[in-house]
Amino acid sequence: MIKQTKRNLMIMWFANFFVAGSMTMVLPFISLYIESFGDHSPTYVQHWSGWTFAITFVTAFLFSPVWGRIGDLFGRRKILILSGIGMGISIFLMGYVTNVWQLFFLRLFTGIFTGFIGMSQAFISTQTPKEIAGRVMGTLQTGSITGSLMGPLLGGVLADLFGFSDTFKWTSIAIFVSAFLVFFTKEHKVQTKKGEQTRYSSKAVIQHIISNPVLLTVMLISTLVQIAHFSIQPILSLYVSELHGPENLAFFAGIAFSAAGLGNLLMARQWGKIGDQHGYIKTLVILLFLAGVFYLPGGFVSNMWQLVLVRFALGITIGGIIPVRIAYIRQEAPVAMQGEVLGYNTSLRFFGNIIGPVIGGLISGYLGFSAVFVVTSLLLILSGLILLGAMNRHPKLAKDSYS
């Protein structure tokens, strides 16, 4: 990598650290924040936790391809700065809400600007040679993972010490810091082949995706993976409450959230290197099966520390899915369309983020917490089977090619 790319990678690592940390600071207590608005039944809180958590991703689902295309045409640096400012303002205002509807609409507005991490991945991806894409994207992801690891813990401490409202205000400051950091980057792309197109229409981008069945499968599976991963997120603090009790609940919910982040942090870069060396699709299939196996025991634990151990094991496998998936997309999409292709991939991820929390809230409300873990495990294993089938049907498209 050239010197400027390494510098950009370092800066975006810290920017992603602050964004991911800030966004996850509030995750452990969204359901508890909703409880504080009035005397509501547990079912009401669980359902609204799901909807309030998911609504951010509705607008993010709609806007991600748009931002991706704008980034391809005019550069991603400006989009990253705009994204940080927009998120910072909306999260700051969440500290002043007095009912669930105000929180709901601010979460909806936040979704317009939520693609910061996805856009930063496109920003670095287009500066990275194909043969080291997995390692580089894994390195970048450790920034967001480290933030996600520290965010829930710090958010839990702040919530217990200062209350939910002030925690939102502190969170917004860290988001503004991320936007400021982007000012110190410079945008460039890897050198394209002679005669390679420098601009594609949206129709051409979609045709490129559809014409590669393995690429299309990888992108569609993004939805299933996110449904599985996010089904438990909005109600995890309630599950911790059931296992541990109400004492210092925000803090212990933060530990449960962060356990998966620690597993992510330890292995994300390593999984990226394994993908570079042995093939991205093979690595993804293995990761999906392992994640499905590790998720299942979470529904049958008898105390919080067993849950923490399960989530740590899950994090070890889940941590490799994003960098390996992005490295494969980097391999299969020309540089001039990568932002839009990654935008569609991010959009499909957000679509899973929409469905997952709602399904998790409904299943837990009617069938209990254990059922959420069973369904999640089956979805991850199903994703692995679908990708394995695509790999066997189209072996040439599943191989790495650095030509």
Shape: globular
Structural class by sheet pairing and helices: mainly alpha
Distance between the termini: 17 Å
Range of strand content: under 5%
User: Quaternary state, please?
Assistant: single chain
Low-confidence stretches: none
Q: What is the H/E string?
A: HHHHHHHHHHHHHHHHH
Overall average pLDDT:
81
Helix content: over 70%
Let me know the number of strands: 0
The radius of gyration computed from the alpha-carbon positions, rounded to a whole number of angstroms, is 20 Å
Biggest β-sheet description: none
Counted by DSSP, the helix tally is 17
Output the keywords:
80% helix, globular, 403 residues, mainly alpha
Give the gist of this structure.
This protein is an all-alpha fold. It has helices at 3-25, 30-35, 42-74, 77-94, 100-111, 116-125, 133-162, 164-182, 202-210, 213-230, 236-244, 249-278, 280-295, 304-332, 338-367, 369-393, 395-398.
Task: Describe it.
The protein is mostly helical and 403 residues long. It is built from 17 helices and no strands. Helix 1 packs antiparallel against helix 6. The longest helix is centred in the first third of the chain and has 33 residues. It is globular, with a radius of gyration of 20 Å. It starts with a helix and ends in a 5-residue tail after the last helix.
